[in-house]
Amino acid sequence: MIGHFNSLGQPRGVIFDLFFTLLKEDFTGPFYRTMARDLGIDAGTFLAAFRSLSRSSMLGEISSMEERVWKTARLCELERDRDVVGEVVARNIELFYSAIEVYNDSVSALLRLRKAGIPTGIASNASAHSKAVLGRSGLDELVTASVLSYEVRCMKPEPAIYEHICEMIGVAPANCIFVGDGGDRELEGARALGMKTILIDRDLSHTDAARPFADLCVRSVAEAVDAVL
Q: I need a surface site. Which of 11, 68, 167, 205 has the fewest CB within 10 A?
């Protein structure tokens, strides 16, 4: 861990990103390969088309995994009845959830903040099918509130999503610390609203670009909580 926030006093609120901050997802997992196989599409082609719909999904323009896979198939020039696609998704959806794992220090870190009486929130650029991910992980029970971008139809680094979660936890942005892996320019957006920022360095492709917008760099959620308590 580099640095600490002791000189700033204890924050009134802490906001966390979700993916690659509190939990991780294997984007090369069996769900995508199995879906491609069952639909008769090359796996690489399927994954590229699926990912091309990420922004639309995270903005709430695509309402479900079924719709996203159906649109993915159409992008791959494969016409499939939507009910058939729904059956394929239902048969394989557990493979999607099994590829998502909570980091081993996330739960204990959130519990420490709860014990300290600090309101916490989750703000994530995420699709409708990520709502179940949040519930299955149990993380939604450990924070004061959460907001996913599809629910409010705006994404980090836009100010509105930060303002929304801050209002939900009852703490002004200037009194919050934002913790994230730095994707989607999230630290830049948080800083623009007056938040202090902590970058969790996961050695991802966007990590270096996020460093200039971090007040503190750490290697884990536990280290981030150490820095603010």
A: 205
